[in-house]
Amino acid sequence: MRTYDKIIMLICCCFIGACSSATVVEEQIEQPVEVLYNDALDTVLNESPEKAAPKFEEVERQHPYSALAVRAQVMAAWSFYQANDYVRAVNALDRFVELNPASEFVEYAYYLKALSYYEQIVDVERDAAMTMLAMQAFEELVRRFPQGTYSRDAQLKIDLTRSHLAGKEMAVGRYYLNNQFYSAALRRFQIVIDNYDTTNQVPEALHRSAEAYLALGLIEEAGRIRQVAVYNYPNSIWTERLAALIADPEKPAPKGVLKRSFDAVTSIFD
Question: Would the pLDDT of 1 be above 70?
């Protein structure tokens, strides 16, 4: 063999040896399931949930058929949640439910998944996607476990998320109303009235709808909106304001009242 070829082979051998030594993975030491699980718990107690999650996963890896393996799966997801790693928490919870549909911890898994979405709600007016995911997750929890441990808290959070989503529709509707896009505004207010009828946004939605109808000159439609508001929300401040805009349909309106009401509505948005 020529000297040049020997040099090339030597270089290749050295390169391969270097790569081999660089890819050596530290061997995982097999330990009893109780030791692994307690070590993970100790890590959590030391306020290091991000370090505890892989340790809980190691419990399942080494002892997949043990009773603690199921608990470890839930605890791994909880550790991700505590570490604000919500994406991995949701993925771990989905996997847990898929693998353990009859587990006693399934209800909690659904609840923790919904919380993972709920904790990510920042500003519903900018992005309602996470609010919608949270609402749907809590609704799924209540549907599956209507009398469950977490159903009451889930229902409260459903009401909050629905109110947030209705608030987003109201914000968009007010923008359209302010810029005299009355048809678009009416569509947004109708979404609130139809889809979020249990929220505290509905009285204002009725009031704003009447404002839009008045601006369009649709006096009868505004009057019908007032009747709905008086019947359903007689004590609301928005119903009181609406009554100030529209003459009582059962009495003849004094000449000029409707004109003044129209002017009052449009002047708000000048």
Answer: no
